[in-house]
Amino acid sequence: MSQTPTPHNGAKYGEIAPAVLMPGDPLRAKFIAETYLSEVRCFNTVRNMLGYTGTYQGTPVSVMGGGMGMPSIGIYTYELFHFYDVETVIRVGSAGGIAEEVALRDVILAAGACTDSHYGAQFHLPGTFAPIADFSLLRKAAACAEKKEIPYRVGNVLSSDLFYVEDANDLSVWQKMGVLAVEMEAAALYMNAARAGKRALCMLTVSDCPLRGEGLPAEARETGFAQMIETALDVVCERG
């Protein structure tokens, strides 16, 4: 492809697998690659947004950091979908639980992503677009989580442009609408996938519940993250 490498991704065409796991933190991508994949090779170090390709039980899989916020994941997933012919991106990250029934360590499968962002304005739609997950990925993830006996919930999340907010009660308004958790990337991922005709899913481990003042210590976050990663790998490899 003449458009690869890109200003943000040093990979040559063909160096990235058709399925990509995408945590926000590039060091988390490095951890996933070194812990779960075999025959690992690094395809990107541009801006330290590390990317790796390897195999998981014989299936080619890539993992790459996506950064924080919709502008960042928007750039990386656009290039993956349009320039590298990636078919599937699964975001694996953390979230703040806001629904009363959501508990620490729960895995959230984001069926849809509400947002306070204007990311979708670029598509010039005559209305409001509803960013949703690919149902085949969502169904497979739910089945894998049940098999592993991982506590999970399926529903809407909020993809917010804001981490620090002036009014701490803003989240309670979304809670009233049944939104399960808040994060910062899923809506852009889902919109990019829809526009490209590709598949996407956002999986999140609940690391804190801001409305209740609860949070996991670092070691507990690692345990919950591992369960989510193993589930995501089973999904992209059609196992479980």
UniProtKB/TrEMBL annotation:
Keyword Glycosyltransferase in annotation: yes
Signal peptide: none
Gene Ontology BP term (one): purine nucleoside metabolic process
InterPro entries: DeoD-type, Nucleoside_phosphorylase_CS, Nucleoside_phosphorylase_d, Nucleoside_phosphorylase_sf
Keyword Transferase annotated: yes
Annotated Nucleoside phosphorylase domain residues: 19-226
Residues the record marks as site: Important for catalytic activity: 221
Enzyme Commission number(s) from the entry: 2.4.2.1
Catalytic activity from the UniProt record: a purine 2'-deoxy-D-ribonucleoside + phosphate = a purine nucleobase + 2-deoxy-alpha-D-ribose 1-phosphate; uridine + phosphate = alpha-D-ribose 1-phosphate + uracil; a purine D-ribonucleoside + phosphate = a purine nucleobase + alpha-D-ribose 1-phosphate
Binding residues for phosphate: 24, 28, 47, 91-94
Active site: 208
Function recorded in the entry: Catalyzes the reversible phosphorolytic breakdown of the N-glycosidic bond in the beta-(deoxy)ribonucleoside molecules, with the formation of the corresponding free purine bases and pentose-1-phosphate.
Quaternary context: Homohexamer; trimer of homodimers.
Alphabetized PANTHER family for the sequence: FI09636P-RELATED, URIDINE PHOSPHORYLASE
Family named by the database record: Belongs to the PNP/UDP phosphorylase family.
Name of the molecule in the record: Purine nucleoside phosphorylase DeoD-type
Source species taxonomy: Bacteria, Bacillati, Bacillota, Clostridia, Eubacteriales
